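Retro notes
What went well: the complex prediction finally ran end to end.
Inputs used:
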Amino acid sequence: MEFAIGIYLALASALFGIGAIGFLLRRNALIQLMSIELMLNAVNVLLVAFNRVHPENMAGQVFAFFVIAIAAAEAAVGLAIVISLFRLKQTVETDSADELRY
Amino acid sequence: MNAWLLVAPLGVLAFAGLGIMLIDAFSPGRAELAGVTTTALLMAGLISVVALLSGVDPGELPRSLRAFIAVDHAGLYFDVVICAGAALSALLAGGYLKEHHLERGEYYVLLIFSALGAMILARAVDLITLFIGLETMSLGVYCMIAYRRTSIRATEGALKYFLLGSFAAAILLFGTALIYGATGHTDLAGIGNVLAAGGADARLVLLALALIVVGLAFKVSAVPFHMWTPDAYEGAPTPTTTFMAVAVKTAGFAIMLRMLITAFGDPLSASPETGWPPLIAGIAILSMIYGNVAGLAQTSVKRMLAYSSIAHAGYILVAVAVSYAAREQAIASVLYYLLAYTVSNVLAFGSLILLGSRGKEAVTYEDLAGAGRRHPLAALPLVIGVLSLMGFPPTAGFFAKYYVLTTALSIGGGMVWVAIILVLSSALGAYYYLKVIVFLFMKEPQAGAPKAVPMRSGYVAFALVLAGYFVIKMGVTPEPYLRMAVDAAQSFIS
């Protein structure tokens, strides 16, 4: 069967778009973190699918593993910052972070 | 000479980071970690200088290493700039953290690993290395901003930078995945070859190019991706702000040059009508105008320096935009600018640290009022720093701007207008730099306001003397530094 990259491209773009819209519209820091994870996973889908198109090496799949590992590290740091905000403000709404204005 | 010298700076920093973690674990609070960190960073920088001068053949290194990490002169040059910036930030931290009772070992570990990430990013010749370097650098910086956990402003600055930074990294990553799909390569040279041969879907390539430029413009805080800059700069502890302004920006521009010249150097992507040059020039114009105009209204010097860093990103982007044509000259002027900008910024932020004391930072213009007349020696570095950022001769900043201007003018055409905007907007920016000097020497503090007393710290004084020496030296005799930049620029082209 012919490998149809178009479907995967559409799927990845849709996931990425949902993540981006979620990031921009929601004001809850945790939801925004989840949206970023969704965007990174869209990239993983794309990388693995593209590896089928370029089967001469495993670069795409290896890249996807690195993305997964780094996404975990990023989530750890992000959650630490959100906890630190919660301790000071008792909320995780990003709108409440409004001290820094000129 | 052994070829491993070319990658030794990275190894030194990696082991130094681990070593400092061990020292801090076994003798908490006793060792002079600022000194250890600075020594390690200066040593890594020195190794890079030695490797630059010795002319080692990189061909002796294994191919598997060279496929991921650049071992060229440009990489070593960026090592020098990043190590210098990070070492000076570590010195500033040595004074600042003690003064504010924040002295904990993890700060130096984060700083050193962040610097390592910046160096990996500046040397990345593969999309995978690029992403690892970018995140190693950024994750450290997020933590260094949020370092003062009881401060709502620090946490807020870190949250804003973290959310927008991760968002931008995801956009960049989507772009790299698309370019991998279009060409089948993750190494920049391979991507460049396929694109030059015209063997890729032009729609995918242009979309990937746009996403990658957006992601990188965010890291160097160029308009319209600058929203986080003033907040993160103001909320962060000042040594972190210094590190962000110098090392993060240097690494960002390094990878931007590598991406645009090595990977997207083909006639279609680098076309002055439809490729990245007009896109970068547009971002440069917006950054120069916005940074200088918005900087005028600030009451906080730290925030003003954040807007100044946006404006400087614009000036450097002018040189990046013309790198499609006047290659060697344009790249060399970017490299020279980054070095000059690093030392000038350390001087400006360092003297802000010096002038604020007893738990209170000097952040607003009001805090500085009259400090120059009461403590002329402590105010002198701030004066030299802002003059250099303004581009006043004979300082490093003057030649940096001069080289960018002559490069832009040598291209002619539309770039002449960009050069005119550069001159006009930096004239506008001179207002807020001079305002610092006016407050230092010509104003008196308001009645009853606390008077700033300069802190006594050998670390901060040493950092200021070192940075001040290079600001003046690069302004009086720029030739050796320019030669070094030209030499590094050549490794981009071949």
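What we learned: Residues 3-493 of chain B form one domain.
What to try next: split runs per interface for comparison.
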